Amino acid sequence: MTFGTFCRFLRRLTREVAPEILFSLWHRWLRRVGPSLRRYRQARKRGELAPPFLFLSLTSACNLRCQGCWVIPENRAKHLPPALVHQLIESGKKRGLFFYTLLGGEPLLYPWLWEILERHRECYFQIITNGIGIDEEVAARWRRLGNVTPLVSVDGFAPTNDRRRGTGTYHRICQALHYLRQKRLFFGVATTISRDNFEEVLSPGFVREMVGQGVMYLWYYILRPMGSPETAQLCLTAEQIVEVRRRLLQLRRHHPLLIIDTYWDEKGRAFCPAALGLGYHIGPEGSIEPCPPLSVASESIQNGTDPLGTILGSRFLRDFAQFVNERTRGCVILEYPKELTEFLRNSGARDYSQGRLFACLENQPALPSHHQPQAEIPEDSWLYRMLKRRLFFGLAGYG
């Protein structure tokens, strides 16, 4: 991001985001990131776990049937018990953990969502949503709470997006973005990059459209084929992944919004957040999982009275980190699917994806991930170098 682009972004922040929302962003998130990251680094030196954020899949219920999604809605949806969510967050607050990403399924279909947000107002919540359930009232409630940043999934312009997410969804998403902008919230768009939308979502036109919709941050992910074996055909080639990195750096120079790339550090090196202990995923049955696409676990937060303590003591998460770090800085789901299946079976982990995950991994070819050691492209912007060194910036698993 050039200095001029940075000034344009600051001007957008002050004009388009409500002052109390900006204060909340600073007070609830930015002010707490430093201490949580210091605790993380100190714990890592001691060989301990202390993630600065967690993903919580509140429910398996969803109102869409997106191509390539790892969540299959069931006739009887599973919900993370609200008492357990409260217990986990209270356990986290005692250890200085105040940042949670809420997802699903569709988190707006979780019956106790507002209870969670209201009760833990000192925490900051990123809500990953398909946007279908966002109306003026929802946006107004988030404005009053001040502790939510919505992240709405968009995978291209109308024809491309609707091929993956369903006819008419792009129009309904644009309505949701309108309400979020109208209430002057700090919100983002999540975009999963595949061969189907590669050129489109990395074009200046798409980014300009998002700026025009009031989007303050654009979060890119690379598709992982966890929905079905056929989805592997939509995954990016090694050359395309390098080109993704190159184009993101170019887009940052010219567009006044934050462009977040998952998962590269300031030197352009790949990393896996779960392998580094930065964040983990809790499934709707309480399962303690490495990341959202990998719905396997051998432990649950339902066992015991200290949910976060159970996560921090997880043998499975430690073994998973060792498995990844011995093989790659990138994504083992893509690069080592058959070895990963063997590791998971040997670890005694349970498949929480209705039996799909092991079958998908066993039939999946080895695919390139963002780990391309001969083609690493360092950050060329002072702002992004600073953000990536000092904040857990650009980390997530929804893709």
Quick summary of this structure?
By secondary structure, the protein is an alpha/beta fold. It has helices at 3-16, 19-45, 82-94, 113-119, 136-145, 158-165, 169-182, 198-201, 204-212, 238-254, 307-312, 315-325, 332-335, 337-346, 356-362, 382-390; strands spanning 53-57, 99-103, 124-129, 148-153, 188-193, 217-222, 258-261, 279-282, 288-289, 296-297, 350-351. It has a single domain (3-273, 371-390), classed as Alpha-Beta Barrel (TIM Barrel), CATH 3.20.20.70.
Description:
The protein is an alpha/beta fold. It has 16 helices and eleven strands. It has one domain: Alpha-Beta Barrel (TIM Barrel), CATH 3.20.20.70. The strands form two sheets. It has a nine-stranded mixed beta sheet. Strands 10-11 form a two-stranded antiparallel sheet. The chain starts with a helix and ends in a 9-residue tail after the last helix. The model has no long low-confidence stretch (mean pLDDT 90).
Encode the helix/strand succession as letters: HHEHEHEHEHHEHHEHEEEEHHHHEHH
Q: Name the overall outline.
A: globular
How can the largest sheet be summarized?
Answer: 9 strands, mixed
Through-space gap between termini: 25 Å
CATH architecture: Alpha-Beta Barrel
Specify Rg, calculated over alpha carbons: 20 Å
Number of strands: 11
The proportion of residues forming helix, as a percent range, comes to: 40-55%
Question: DSSP strand (E) fraction?
Answer: 5-15%
Average pLDDT works out at: 90
The CATH topology is given as: TIM Barrel
Query: Can you tell me the CATH class?
Result: Alpha Beta
Work out the count of structural domains. Answer: 1
Number of helices: 16
What strand order characterises the main sheet? 7-6-5-4-3-2-1-8-9
Counting helices, strands and paired strands, the structural category is alpha/beta
